[in-house]
Design a protein that fits this description.
28% strand; 2 helices; mainly beta; Ubiquitin-like (UB roll)
Length: 136
């Protein structure tokens, strides 16, 4: 018999059902499934590492634990970055954008941020785009 338990499949926490302070919860503009986009950025270099999703509970855990927690839309469960890979994200600061629909989480990233093993989820994934000149 295994000592590990199977992860619970759960829906995102409904607003007002977690320990997230009411004044923070009231400022969030969640999508139709109760989630807010969380942009993860390396605190000292400004490098954008990844995009994840948080509900109220994941945000509460992130604000109070010192580690980033996401809500996985595909697995329908919470996951704390680095628990299985060792690629931990140590929280340095969290900000809410002006519209309340996105979070900027500045972290100290240990190892790769992307599940593919690259430093960021954007490495080697450039799209062809016409660059603007900055002159009108």
């Amino acid at each position: 018999m295994s000592s590990q338990t199977e992860p619970q499949t759960i829906a995102p926490a409904a607003a007002g059902t977690t320990a997230l302070p009411a004044e923070v919860a009231a400022r969030l503009k969640r999508d139709g499934t109760g989630l807010v986009a969380a942009i993860i950025q390396q605190h000292d270099s400004g490098e954008v590492l990844m995009l994840g999703w948080m509900d109220d509970e994941a945000l509460h855990r992130t604000l109070t634990s010192g580690r980033v927690t996401f809500y996985s839309r595909s697995r329908r469960e919470y996951w704390r970055k680095g628990d299985t890979s060792g690629h931990v994200q140590w929280v340095k600061s969290v900000a809410l954008d002006c519209d309340g629909d996105a979070l900027l989480v500045k972290v100290d990233q240990v190892g790769a941020a992307c599940h593919t093993g690259t430093r960021t989820c954007f490495d080697g994934r450039m799209l062809d785009a016409t660059a603007g000149t900055g002159v009108q």
